[in-house]
Amino acid sequence: MANITPDKITKIIAFSLGSISGGEDLDRSITQHVLVLTIKDVLKKMIADADVEIRCYVQDPEYSDVDRTALAGAGIEVLDDPQGFLEVDDSSVVLSFDSAVPVRQIVADLARPAIMIWNKVRSEEEVIQCSSGGGESPICKSLEEIEGGL
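The line above is the sequence of SRR1-like domain-containing protein; the predicted structure tokens follow.
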């Protein structure tokens, strides 16, 4: 894997963080959106060139117009599906927590982001699929490469 330095990161893309304007997981959602901004701040402090811009993108079908306005005010751009996935490249930080969509698998087929953050390393279904002869798929091979072996 290439040596990635903070100055090579140009965007943060987060999937399935949930609505920040209400709902049962409001605290979790707000915390995860704050994490996006915190990562941006930490990376900016690590970069010598103050003019380097790090863009923040989020994608979730739950976002309302209120969410979009509030997030835009915080410097986070809401993208509709599949635009978030199309933004992912080697200069990206990707976050995903409890997504109903197989974000890691999709991302693994598209690019090798500089950083990937998620809350579940592998689901039981993925372990079974990748270890019971189903591991020949490009997705399982990509996950194995990213995670350092199954």
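Note on the example: The chain has a mean pLDDT of 84. The chain has six helices and five strands.
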